[in-house]
Amino acid sequence: MLADIKLAIRLQDLDYRVAELTREISFLPKHIAEIEKKLESHERKLEADRAAVAANQKDRKRMEGEIQIQQQKISKLKDQMLDAKTNEVYRAFQHEIEYCEKEIRHAEDRILDLMSESEPLERNVKAAEAALKQEKTQVEAEKQQARERTARDQKELGELEAERKSIGSQITPKVLAAYERVRKLRRGVAVAEAVDGRCSQCHLTMRLQFFQDLKRSEQVMYCESCSRILYYNPPESIEKLAGEPAPAARG
After folding, report:
1. In terms of pTM, does the model score above 0.90?
2. Which residue, 13, 92, 152, 238, is the most exposed by fewest CB within 10 angstroms?
3. Cα dist from 89 to 95, 102, 231, whole Å
């Protein structure tokens, strides 16, 4: 196989890996941003649940305060009843006391409702706190793994780019220019194997003479359809694959 062909094949392998690493390096920050965004949404949900618990407790205290106020009113009204001069005034005090007692019952009922509502809210907060703690640990671990993976990728990318530059200095400029041009046009695939007389990429059936010239590997040849650099990889003989010499022909 021609040196330029070997170099072009290696160049394409490098470019495949470079593209893969570049995608991974660009993906990792997006992945971290996504899991952090998810974590933030869970934190906001927890804060909302905590706020609901706090509001519930505040309402209960307000109701308890309202009960105390009404109880104080009742106590004052009862004291005033003792000084009532007429039945009409006495009954008026009784109505006031009954109203206060009704307000107390309403407040007590509301407190019971709030206590019933608070139980699932508090359970949600405790469960969310435990889940969030675990999620934070997992997110930090993923972030650390991403940093380590990015560092490895960048190191490998630097090594590949150095090798690519070295190959670029060894390959024939005309072949390199053709490689780069076709790579841009053909989604990164500039080199193709000829298999069964066809280009393995565009599947064009080659002219017989063209295929014979390609098999001789005397010059760099390009697909007449897609312009990719072509190479022919001859099949291994059974003897070579087995590592044994072919038996001598019988006379």
Report:
1. no
2. 238
3. 10, 20, 115
Q: What is the pLDDT of residues 182-225, one digit of tens each?
A: 999 999 999 999 999 999 999 999 999 999 999 999 999 999 99
Quick one: CATH architecture of 17-169? Orthogonal Bundle (1.10)
Count of other CB atoms within 10 angstroms of residue 211: 17
Tokens representing 241? 């694959």
User: Which token pair is 97?
Assistant: 């006391």
pLDDT band at 242 (very low <50, low <70, confident <90, very high): low
The three-state secondary structure class of 194 is: strand
Identify the residue whose tokens are 């109701």: 63
9-57 pLDDT per residue, tens: 999 999 999 999 999 999 999 989 999 999 999 999 999 999 999 999 9
| Residues of the chain by 3-state class (helix, strand, coil), percent to 5 | 75, 5, 20
Q: 225: closest CA among 188, 194, 250?
A: 194
- Domains of the chain, residue spans: 17-169, 173-239
Query: Can you tell me the distance from the alpha carbon of 156 to that of 158, in angstroms, rounded to the nearest whole number?
Result: 5
- Asked if residue 185 lies in contact with residue 29, where contact means CB atoms within 8 angstroms, the answer is no
Contacts of 178 (CB under 8 A, 6+ apart): 190, 220, 222, 227, 229
